[in-house]
Amino acid sequence: PIYLDHHATTPLDPRVREAMLPYLDTFFGNAGSAEHRHGWRAQEAVEAARSKVAALIGARPAEVVFTSGATEANNLALMGSADAAGPHVITTGIEHASIVACAAERERRGDPVSILPVDREGRIDPAQVAAAIRPGTGLISISLANHEIGTIQPLAEIGILARQHGILFHVDATQAVGRIPVSMPALGADFLSLSAHKFHGPKGVGALVVTRPARRHLRPILFGGGQEHGFRPGTLPVPLIVGFGAAAAIAQAAMPEESLRLAMLRDRLLDRLAALPGLRVHGGTRFRLSGSLNIGWPGLVARDLIHLLRDDVAISSGSACGSAVLHPSPVLRAIGMTEEEALGGLRFGLGRFTTEAEVDRAAAAILRAAPLLRR
Ligand code: PLP
Fold first, then answer.
1. Residue nearest to atom 5 of ligand 1 (CA)
2. Distance (Å, whole) CA 110 – CA 120
3. Which of 82, 191, 270, 345: CA 20 to 30 A from 135?
4. What residue ranges are annotated as transmembrane (predicted)?
């Protein structure tokens, strides 16, 4: 099937694979072995990758803490800052499951949590963040780009607010990194989560980037050896980290052209699909990732269409984590859609290797199938 689910994950770039291969066998050393060449070689590779990852987000290499992915990075940010800052957490109603679950766990442990609403485009209003700040607010956690509707948030304004009030600011940039320019200093973020597999790197590796001044407000959630400044103990997965670095460098170089190409393909897809009357675009069109499109038709249940098209097109009705059961996307509900409307949300995510021909074939398949299912 034509793969149009790049929010869930992306295929490995062949260049990333090439970069990783030597570290799967020839250079198998432990990056923590300081006493021999095997270790040095691995350590050099890790540090080179660290620099590439840092460069992609305008951070310093020493600020990168490698993790198993963004879920772990989010856990480290939300659970690891639990005792250091004030107890009150501010987040939004459209966050990824890993943020939702960490916020719920903080609440269960007795910390107050404010979940802010978003508008029909999925945008958070900085004024609402300002209004939610109170004595004891310790952490604001907001994603830069949404994983279902692609909405990009006005985070720089919120970063300024956080700074003014001495509140830690965590940005889950997992969907944004590699797709739009991300600068940690420009966002004013203290902590930033990212994951390699969202931009054609390998699965199972990501990072929490922790600015130098914010370091003293973070405590580890795992305990062991002193790796990653003690924030993330455990032997580093050298091949994955090398792949992460390669993917970061490629994304950084490809981004300007790629984002334009994806926007054109996305508009082409929308244009084709609009041939079936009643199409609605969910979330806004003004502040959106260029490869993202979330749509629906009245009376069409997304799950039915996705199932019918399973041999032709791989799309989804929401985030991969919650897909096992039929429930309306909390993101679509949060932007004001009814339960029935939300069950109609079809998420398309285009990526580096998506072609015009694929977009046309996918649209044609959908246009054939959708009328059969509309109630
Ligand atoms: N945050 C966002 C916004 C995501 O889209 C994802 C995707 O799965 C994650 C976090 C989790 O990332 P990972 O798969 O690396 O755990």
1. 147
2. 31
3. 191
4. none
| Per-residue model confidence as pLDDT tens digits over 286-324 | 999 999 999 999 999 999 999 999 999 999 997 655 555
As for the ipTM of the complex, it is: 0.99
What global pTM score does this model have?
Answer: 0.96
What radius of gyration do the chain's Cα atoms show?
A: 21
In angstroms, what is the span from residue 248 Cα to ligand 1's centroid? Answer: 16
Cα of 359 to ligand 1 centre, how many Å?
Answer: 25
CA 288 to chain centre: 14
Whole-number Å distance, alpha carbon 122 to ligand 1 midpoint, is: 18
Tokens of 222: 């795992």
pLDDT digits (tens, 9 = 90+) for 189-229: 999 999 999 999 999 999 999 999 999 999 999 999 999 99
- What separation in Å is there between the alpha carbon of 351 and the centre of ligand 1? 16
Ligand 1 atom closest to residue 320's alpha carbon, by position in its atom list: 8
Other beta carbons within 10 angstroms of residue 145's beta carbon come to 26
98 lines ligand 1 (CB under 6 A): yes
Closest CA to 367 of 295, 319, 286, 317: 295
Question: Is 14-249 a CATH 3.30.70.3270 domain?
Answer: no
Report whether residue 153 contacts ligand 1, using a CB cutoff of 6 Å. no
Helix ranges, the chain (H): 14-20, 37-56, 70-80, 97-108, 126-132, 155-165, 184-187, 238-273, 302-308, 330-334, 339-342, 356-373
Q: How confident is the prediction for the chain on average, in pLDDT?
A: 95
**Residue 141 Cβ contacting ligand 1 at under 6 Å:** no
Ligand 1 atom closest to Cα of residue 145: 3
Instruction: Identify the residue whose C-alpha is closest to ligand 1 atom 16.
Output: 71
- For residue 66, the number of C-alpha atoms closer than 13 Å in the C-beta half-sphere is 29
Tokens 């929308």 found at: 270
Please check whether residue 374 is in contact with residue 33, taking contact to mean a CB–CB distance below 8 angstroms. no
What's the order of all strands across the beta sheet hosting 88-92? 64-67, 206-210, 191-195, 168-172, 137-143, 88-92, 113-116
Q: 6, 53, 67, 71: which to mutate for ligand 1, most atoms within 8 A of CB?
A: 71
Considering the domain 2-8+256-373, what is its CATH architecture? Answer: Alpha-Beta Complex (3.90)
